[in-house]
Each structure stands twice: as C-alpha cells, then as structure tokens.
Amino acid sequence: MHTLVPLPVAIPLGVAAILGALNGHVPRRIADAACILATVAVGAITLDLMVISRHVPIVYWFGGWTVRAGMAIGISFVIDPIGAGLASFVCVLVLAAFIFSLHYFESVGTMFHVLMLGFLAAMCGFCLTGDLFNMFVFFELMSAAAFALCGYKNEEPSAQQGALNFAITNTIGAFMVLIGIALLYSRTGALNMAQIGRALSNQMDATIIVAFVMIMCGFYVKAAAVPFHFWLADAHAVAPTPVCILFSGVMVELGVYAVARVYWAIMDGPFAAHRPALSGLLLTVGAITAVVGAIMCFGQRHIKRLLAFSTISHVGLLIIAFALLTPDGLAGGAIYTLGHGMVKAALFIVSGILLHRFGTVDEYHLHGRGRPHLGTALVFFAAGLGLAGMPPFGTFLGEHTIERAAELAHQSWIDVIFFFAGAITAAAVFRVTARVFFGWGPKHDEFSGGGKHISEQRETKHSGQGIPAVMFVPAAVLVLLALAIGIMPHVHQEARVAAFTMADHAGYQARVLDGTKLPDAKPEVEYSPLAESLARSLGATGAALGIAFLTLAPWYPRKNKAYRPIRSAMQVLRNFHTGHVGDYVAFLTFGVAAFGVVLGLLIKRFGF
Amino acid sequence: MSIFPYLVAAWLFLVGLYGVISSRNFVHIAMCLAVVQSSTYVLLLAIGYKTGGVPPIFAGAQVGTPAVDPIVQALMLTDIVVEATVVALLLALAVQIQKAAGTVNPDRLLELQG
Amino acid sequence: MNRSRRHILFFVSAAVFFGLMTWAMHDLPPVGHYRGPYGDAINATVVYERHITDAVTAVNFDYRGFDTLGEESILFLSVIGVGTLLRQQKRERKSREDTDELEKGQAPEPSEAMKVITLGLVGPLVVYGIYIITHGQLTPGGGFQGGVVLATAPLLVYLAGDLKTFKRITTHTLVEIGEAIGIFGFLMIGFLGIIAGKEFLRNVLPLGQTGSIFSGGTVALLDIATGLAVAGGFISAIYAFLEQTIEMRMEGEE
Amino acid sequence: MLILQIAILAFVAITGTAVVLTRDPRNQVIGLGFYGLVLALMFFLYEAPDVALSQIVIGAVALPLMFMLSLSKIRRNEQKRDEVKQKQREKAA
C-alpha cells in the first residue's frame, strides 16, 4: 500500500485551509515559506511516485473500496509515469510561480497563496485520478481557482472581462464533459475509467460517438483548440504573471492530457476499428490550431497576448502528437509538454520582469527601453530558440519524436506544420527581443497591430533600477531545465516506456480491475534518424531569425504591395477575435456540432 | 416517456446557450448558465430513474423494493454545489467589471480585440 | 462578428447539436430502465455494510467520499475567490458612518411585529439545520443541505434590521475559521484511515447501530465537517455581496 | 404518477425557456427562484429527495439572494453614474 498517494492532493488543501483560516494573521513571509515547502513536498512525492510506478503499477482505492467482482465501488487513483510525471512538472512550475511572486504586489492577506495551493491540488488530482467523475470534480476545482486568479487585478476592466470570458466558456465546457460522463454512465453503469472501457469493449454506436465528442470538446475548451481557443488570449493577456506561468505552462496542456487519458483508458476499444476517422479529424484540428495560433501570435504587440497565441499554436502541435494515436506520438507529446512548458514559463516570467521594471508589456512602448538588461534579453532570446525547437532544447527532442511517430503513421506532412508554427512563433519572440532590448527597427510595424493598447496594472512596487534575483533566477533556471531535458540521456527512452504504459488499453484495465502487474516487455530501443528533424528545426530557427530581421530592417520595403494578401489574411483572422463572449460561445457550439457531424459521418456513413 | 427527458435536457442546454450568445448583460448570462447546468440535472436524473422505483432510503422499506440509482443523485449534489460556486464567481466578476468599466454589457467592452 | 451573423451561426450549429443529441439518445437505455450495476450494488449492500439507511449520504461520504472532499474544496476556493475579487479597491472605502443609519436609506425599516417574527424564526432554523446535518445517514439531507440552512439563519437577523448583531455573528474571521475547520476536519478524518494503517478516507470507526444518529462511523463526522464548511462558505459568500451593496462606496460618492 | 412526471418535465422546459427569454435581470431573478422550485419538485417526483432538498436551499434561496444583491449593487452604481453625468450636463448648460 502506498501511503503517499493521497498526499499530493491532501497537503496543499490542508495548508490552504490553515492559511485561509488565519487569513490576515499570518505574516507574508511565513505564508510564502509554507507554500514553497508544501510545493516542494508534493513535488518530491509525485517524483517518487513516478519512479515507483515505472516498475510497479499503483492503484489506490480511496476508503479501501477495492474492486468487487470486476466492479469499482469507490474512487481510485491510477498512477503511471506520465500522470505522476505531469504532476511533478506542475510542482516545478508552481514553485517557479511562488518564487517569482515573492516580490509580488501587496496581496490581500494570503488569499493569493490559498488560491494557488488549491490550483496545485486540483492539477495533481487531475493528473492522477482514474475515475471519470472525479476527473470532472478536479477539473472544476482547477477552474474555480483559475477564474479567481485570472481576475485577480480587480481594478482592471480588461482583467475582469478576460476572466469572465474564460469563466463562461470553460464552464460550458465543463458541462459538456459532464453530459459525456452521464451518457457513458447510462450505457455502462460505471464511473471508473477502466471499468467503462471494459464494459464498452469494442462496441461502437451513436451514444459512444456523441459521448466522446462531448468529453473531447469539453476538455479541448480548456486546451484552447480552434475554434474553442478565443478565451485563452484574453485570459492570458490579463492574468497576473505567476498565474500565466501556470495557465500556459501546464493547465492548457492538461486539457490535451485529459483527452489522451480518456481515449487510451476508455475509447481505444470502440475506436480500434475507426482510428483513421478520429486521427484524421484531430490532425486537422491540431494543424489548424497550430497555424491560426502562429499567425495571430505574430500579429500582437501586447507581449503577454503574443505569448498566449503562441501557446495556442504549440497546443495545436500537442494535439497533433496525440492525434497520431500511437504510443510514440504520446511519448513525443510528453517530452514536448515539458520542454515547451518550461520555455513558455520563462518567457512569461520575462514579461513579468518587464512589467515590473517599466510598468507596461506593450512592445511599441518598450521600444529600446530594455537595453540595460542584457541578461534578461539573453534569457528571452534563448527561450525563443526553444520555441523554434532548436536542438538541444527539450522541444527539439519532443518534436523529433513526434515527427518520427508521424513518419511511421504515414503522416509526414505534419513536418510542414511544425516548421511553420516554430518559425512564426519564434520570429515573433525574436522581433520582441530585438525591438525591446536592442531598440531595433521602427517603433511600429505593419503586422503587429493586434490588440489595441491593453491597460496593465503594475504587479509590484517599483523599486530602483535593477531586476530582483527572485524574478530573474527562475526564468534562467527554467531555460536551463528545458535544455537539460533535451540533453539528458534516457529521456527519450523513459518517455517511450511511460507512453507505452499509458497507451496499453487492455493492460490499464487489467491493472485496475484485476490487479495484474506491468508486463516486463519494454519497447525496444529504436534507431531514429535525426538528420531530417535536425534540418527542419534549424531551418525553422533560421526562418524565424530571418522573418524577425525582415520585419525590423530599416531598408526593407514594408509598404510593398506584395504584403497585402498577408495583411488582409491577418485582418480576417483578427476580426474573429472580438473579445465578445457571445461570439465565443457561438463558435463553441459550432465546434461541437462540427466535431460530432464529421466524426459521426466518417464512422457511420463512410465506414472509416 | 422513453426519451422525452433526454430531449428536455438537450433543449435546456441549447436554450441556455442561446441566452448566453444573445445576452447584453453579464448577470443575465450567469442566470442562463444556471439553466444550461439544469440540463445536466435532468439528464442525470433520467439516467438513474427506474419506473416504479422508490427513493434510495431504506429506513423501514421492505427488502426487495427496487430503489432508484443513488449514484446519480450523489453526482447531482456535487453538480449543484458547482453551480452555486460558479455563479458566485461570475457575479463577483460582473460586479467588478461594472465598477471598472462602467458597464455589464459585453457589447460595450472593446479592449480585448484582435 | 455582428449580432445577426452570430445568431445565424448559433442557430445552425444548435440545430445540428440537437440532432446529434437525439441521435445519441436512441442508443441509450430508455428512461425508467436503469441497468446498473453500480447503483444497484450500492443499494443492495449499503444498510448491511455501512449501517446507513440513506444510500445517497453513504455514497457521498463513504463510497465516493473523495469526490465530496473535492466538492468542499471547490466551495472553499470559490468563496476565497469571491472574497479576492470583491476586495476593497484603492478607489473604494468602507462607509464610516453608523451602518444602521446607512441601512435606513436602503430598505424600509421593518415593523416591530415583523422583527419579532423574523428573529423568532432564527432559533428553529438553526435547530432544523443541525437536525438535517446530524440525520444525514438516516433521512434525506446531510451536511450540505443543513449547512446552507444554517447559513440562512444570520440572514434573518439582517432582514430583521439588526445589522449590528448580524455583523457581530458573521465576522470574517469567525466564518472563515468555521469554513477552514470544516475542510481541515474532513482531511483529518480522512487521515484517520491512514493512521489506522489503511487507506485515506477509510471508514475506521465503529459503525454503530443502524438507525441511530451515531451510525455510519466516520460518515457522521464527515457530515458535520461538511456542514461547517458549507455554512461558513455560504455565509462568507453572501456576506461579501452584502458588504458590496451596503458599505462599499467609490471615492467621491455621498 | 407517469403523467405527473411528464408534465413536470414539460413544465421545467417551459420555465427554463422563460427564464432565458426574460431580458430584465430583476424579473429574471424571480423567474430563476421559481425555476429552482420547479426543479426541486421534479426531483421529488423522480424519487430524489436529497437532491430536492439541496435544490430548494440553493436554487430557490441562496442563488436568487446572491443575484439580487449583486444586481442592486450594479444598479446603484449605474444610478450614481447617471446622476454624475446629469450634473455635468447641467453645468455645461
């Protein structure tokens, strides 16, 4: 029995309850220390669980309600290396956020800490649970904390609007998840994922399709897949920096994880004969998301909003990784999540530093003002290289693994998408670096007019000229960690083992319901040719540098007519991002209907 | 009776969404979301129901009476809490946006465009 | 997108959506034919196994008690969230005048008879709330429902026009401590199982006699913890809104 | 019993629609409270007394109360705003 298993949820909630009760009576620094200690403890525990679960499957039944005649009576945590690894990654980012916010603006008592701890508990529970309804509960817990954190700057109109858009769309998404759960419960009389999977076995009918579409769309609202992505840019642009780290670094990716978990635990049986249909649909969605996100990213002047759109683009790549529906794709996705999360967190921290130092994150207003801060510039630039997927960053290893999986699945065209997303999003980051830190180029340009000036409340007490170490160090460390993931030996192999465990549909059911052991057979080490990915990623980095240079170069004819199609295409895309929640919900309904119809037609009508 | 409750659930979901997309007031939107949520109550209730069943409370009930499903009822209890909390958060945001922007009409908020 | 385009997009999608749901429902068991097995298994064993007569309470606090922990945390966090969002802004100040005076401008002063009746209801309401909480294992109701009933009691005091007493019994600290003790208590009861060498939230206390209010082992305790958390949570949420309406003023307002 | 159950469902659908279509938030709150009671009745008729009880305390009491409080806050702020504007206009005139 593993006494440690409930702790990743129990510790943060317990500390949150104490801080909540003593609200206003605890000195700020003690609260900080308690939060950091709790996060470190949870991180150590989840890391430990990850290592253990590589060899021994961990299935923990709360209340001691073990399986009875193949039926789950209670709620289980089913821990495998991917779930536990994701949870420990959550802890890394939460820790970074707490350290960054040591210098954070006068928070009211300790409410900020309580909310962050609740957020941590929710994300850990979400990663570890093996029960579908329990997943919904943690999803809602995550949302409750996230909505409040997003609207934390309560004097900013845009912050309140962003939080409202976020809350309304994500709540509708949660209801859709619940409807999907209810449909599955009606069919199988079970809430445990393994049991649902076994009960459905290979059946395929309308209810299963619609239930999966509802669950998938609900979680993809959180993951910000097109056309559910609108809320993300609004919420990220206005949320406090430490919160952005968590939103972009891991919360959004958890949406993709949830769909992957539900697919491999439950739906792999029903969809076994219809994989091309699902795979095709999701690959398309992922590709569109990656492209739309990248274009919109380049068109922003508000740095946090720019980074938000780049997250959308990279989530598209993650969706592609999952959409291959192979363990290899999953392994690539896992590595990519780590690499991207760290790089993106570092970028957001730098934007927080800019806000601290200059009181704005508007690229035009910051023109050349970052000159004295060479170290920060270096971190920002390096993180940009990471976004482009340049070796040896973790993102490169992830992309390489995904591309290799795609090649095996005969979907090599996704290389183009990876090239495009990497090049354009990194170009935007390089452009910001050059303009803000080196004062290159004109103050304005033709492309990046997106988002009118969004007013931004200072988050810190402005003090002196320097940049506090507690702000700079986390960013630098995160970039180094992203490099370490790409360099460390065995990462690739371990990720593959973990992915094969997660994608073992029958094995998952057997582990949970029959208590069997993990199979000893591990996937063999395969030879993977690097050359192609290497060429692609270096090409993307080069293209990104080139595009950024061209945008800023003084001699370049920016008013040239040749740009007109690009500009008008960008304008068309921009016109969809209205900031109006009614539009967002209309697109959400459209997305669900389109997913359902396409999947239904492909499977039932065309027999894919 | 065979699928009528399911249809009611689908109807409530869509009517609520219609309210959200056509609304000119964030408080109104919060109430429409409550309607959207009630569709999940109807769906869960219908799923766990047994014709002729009794409530799942066995104080003095004779053994062998078929009782309706207690699980969905427990899920609905959770669902109701979720509704209350989400509504409270939305209302707090609506109050604050009125203070900050002077309006609760999404049509008049133009800062987050493009 | 303008209004009419948004409506067109929505109506087309909604029609398709409705069609999808109808399509899905034809493969569901018809309403009234619940097929189990989860609920039936619980119904068959709950009284014998847990000495609890209300199966829903048993599911909430024992079989699926972990969900309820999550649920209480949702409530706790969103109450903290509401407090965070509605916190005093720099431009705002709390009204310094005697709040009773202020209140007179807001609502008509209730008549004496009305006051007596409302205040007279407080006692029974509290008793009823406690009754619902403690009888969760036996009859419909439980910590959640009773907690909300308890939370409405101070509101009656407010309705009776006695704002001072209302504020005295709903001080932030008191309520927040109650709420936090609820959550913390829930966790501690969960840890009882671990201390006993079993799983988290394992029901390790003696189950008692079926039909008594001490039946169900930890379920009775979890019920009370939940009642505390819910009562505290709802009072502070409602209080946060009340404070906005009654006391908060923007600078420059009369 | 069956007829009652079908009738209450139809009533739920109608009341829910009415709540959405009521455009004035103040009237809508009253509608929402009523809708909460109708839902509670539905829970009773479908043998879910636990849920019905919590629906009554939440849906028909706590939620409408929160709505009413925040609406009155918003309305008061808007009135204040209008008054200020009115004064400015008078001054200008």
Structural class of chain D: mainly alpha
| Parts with pLDDT < 50 across at least 5 consecutive residues of chain D | none
Order of helices and strands of chain C: HHHHEHHHHHHE
Total number of helical segments of chain C? 10
Largest protein interface, residues of each chain: A-C, 84 and 72 residues
Question: Can you list the strand order of the major beta sheet of chain C?
Answer: 1-2
* Quaternary structure: heterotetramer
- Per DSSP E runs of 2 or more residues, the count of β-strands of chain C stands at 2
Task: Give the amount of beta strand of chain D, in percent.
Answer: under 5%
Assess the beta-strand content of chain C as a share of residues. under 5%
Mean pLDDT of chain C, rounded to whole units?
Answer: 83
Distance between the termini of chain D: 69 Å
How many structural domains in the coordinates of chain D? 1
Choose one word for the global shape of chain D.
elongated
Specify the helix fraction band of chain C: 55-70%
Whole-Å distance between the termini of chain C? 41 Å
Largest sheet of chain D: none
Question: How would you summarize this macromolecular structure in one to three sentences?
Answer:
Chain C has 254 residues and is mostly helical. Helix content of chain C is 69%, strand content 2%. The radius of gyration of chain C is 24 Å and the shape is globular.
Task: Please describe what this structure looks like.
The complex is a heterotetramer of chains A (608), B (114), C (254) and D (93). By secondary structure, chain A is an all-alpha fold. Chain A is globular. Helices cover 71% and strands 1% of the residues of chain A. In chain A, helix 3 packs antiparallel against helix 10 and helix 16 packs across helix 20. Chain B is mainly α and 114 residues long. Chain B has a single domain, classed as Helix Hairpins. Chain B is 65% helix and 0% strand. Chain B contains three helices and no strands. In chain B, helix 1 runs antiparallel to helix 2 and helix 2 runs antiparallel to helix 3. The longest helix of chain B has 32 residues. Chain C is mostly helical and 254 residues long. Helices cover 69% and strands 2% of the residues of chain C. In chain C, helix 3 crosses helix 10 and helix 4 packs antiparallel against helix 9. Chain C has one domain. Chain C contains ten helices and two strands; from the N terminus they run ααααβααααααβ. The radius of gyration of chain C is 24 Å and the shape is globular. With 93 residues, chain D is mainly alpha-helical. Chain D has one domain. Chain D is built from three helices and no strands. The longest helix of chain D is centred in the last third of the chain and has 44 residues. The chains are: A mainly alpha (608), B mainly alpha (114), C mainly alpha (254), D mainly alpha (93). The interface between A and C is large, with 84 and 72 residues.
